[in-house]
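Escalated from tier 1: zinc ion holo job.
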Amino acid sequence: MRPEELIDHDLHVHTTLSACCSDPQATPENILARAAQQGLRTIAFTDHLWDGACPGASSWYKPQDVDHVLQIRKQIPPETGDVRALVGCESEYAGNGKVGLSPKTKSLFDWVLLPMSHLHMRGFVLPDGVTESTDIAALMVHRFQEVLDLNLADGIAHPFLPCGHLDRADEILGFIPDHDFRACFDRAAEHTVSIEITTAFFPSTRGQKADGLHDETFLRILSLAKQCGCVFHLASDAHSLKGIGQVHKLAPFLGELGLQRDDFAPILDQQE
Ligand SMILES: [Zn+2]
Ligand SMILES: [Zn+2]
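Tier 2 regenerated the structure:
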């Protein structure tokens, strides 16, 4: 199968319901229309969520509770044409068991993403004292495994992408040996937790020149995930309407990784 044929979904899309979305055009209706034009058949809306029933929300997360995020149910048009719309969320894991989603709330969503690397949230996700690249690397390995233990995630949002520290991402990720990645990905494969392949892994897809992150870095990591038998999903992490369709830029990387249809998350089998 040609890589381009595998690019028929985007399972990480934000709408105007996310506080960090500044594009008033990023409504479910517009996103689904653009997805259809772009040849995508499944879209997962994954706005940021912190369930009010879970203690410890940051002030940024607090308004983005379950009622807020589920407003999307009313916003998705009753007829979505050829595009399947999944009601999802991107919740949060802040370490020490502090998570923005409960098992009860999980059942309200078709697709739950948990990130383990929103390390730009210093003092909330990233502990104040952690600054060295080696310590950030070790923290991510630990957090990845903790997130799996929570048993809440269908997929991991941008796994191991050190948000807020992309200027030294190559260096940070270079401190994680293959056997640590394998330990993480073996468990993800065992639990069928999907590994996200986001355009953010590959600066070239975004037309960015990022000295601290090169395309090869995540090719290494994703090939380890594939060797471990993980399943994958594609993501733009779009926060604007024009971000819909950016997943097509992943084609060369999917080719390089040798991915096939059965390497993708089971939720995508239902799109026939
Ligand atoms: Zn994220
Ligand atoms: Zn996101």
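The beta strands are 9-13, 42-48, 84-90, 111-115, 155-157, 194-198, 232-235.
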